[in-house]
Amino acid sequence: MNNTAIAAHHGVVFPPEIADRIMSYLHDDKATLKACSLTCRPWYLTALYHTIHFHSTTMPYCAHGFANLLTHSPHIGSFVRELSLTLLSDSYSHLSPILKLSKHLGNVHTLTLCGLFTGRYLTVFGAVCHIRLFDPYCTCHTFVSVFNAFPSLVDFALDAYTAKPTYGPIDTLPAWPLKKLRLTPMITPMTKPPSFPLLRANPQSISHFELQIYHVLDDTQVLELFAALELFQALRNLSLVTPSLASLASLMPRLQWPGIDKLTLGVFPRSMSDVDTLIRVLSDADFSSASKVVLRLQCMRHMLYIQRDMGKFRTSLEESLKGLCARGVLSVVI
């Protein structure tokens, strides 16, 4: 049998780098990935990684099914990179099988935790670098447990927490090598002003900070927030998201200190009147020190249908920020 016949019999063999690119392109298509893993043996491991790199245990049957899979095929655990754990009714019973088999999940680098998790349940996952925590009753003890469990943590996101005076003394918070910090406070005008203890503990290493504010900040809160932000000696990337134009107006005069390379502003204009206010606020700001400014505007649906108003909005925005447009550092996402 000649070489041509042999190639026709065995089929075309893709170089590994091409196979990896094909698998990466099919990353979200689970059905096709499974078909590829069954069709071509060399593609099995790559397809397996893209299929189970993320696993969520939002329901008890998901946790028990995944634990059963790890029991019979422990090698699969090495392909898991992101794990989402949900605490149901303050009980760890449905998660105990996974926690017992955590030795097979040594390559997990991203954890998403929903609920109140104590440190002794977190340390079983080893060197995790990225954590996203959903906890409406987060306290200082929660912060200490998380940072003590993962001393190599570089990315921490805290969503839907209530700013209560239960953080405890600031000096009880451990130092950490964080580079990216994201906070989404669940604050209403009825709650007390946040104390931002996370910002004051050890901010020398944080270079990326994201804050989402869903209520109007008073003067005291604005002063306290920026007093903490000014301690961020390595801060280069700042992102603020707020539906309140009043909060944005109070924040803008203080966003003009040197060192910020990228500034991202997320705003929710609800009418053309809000758009006019936004343009006025932005036109008074000084972005001379920023190398990139990103405006993310989430407009109401009825505004998107009025092309005349949207065209007027774009024109007014470009005129008010013509300095940024001339420098080529402005990016607007609607």
UniProtKB/TrEMBL annotation:
<protein>
    <submittedName>
        <fullName>Uncharacterized protein</fullName>
    </submittedName>
</protein>
<dbReference type="InterPro" id="IPR036047">
    <property type="entry name" value="F-box-like_dom_sf"/>
</dbReference>
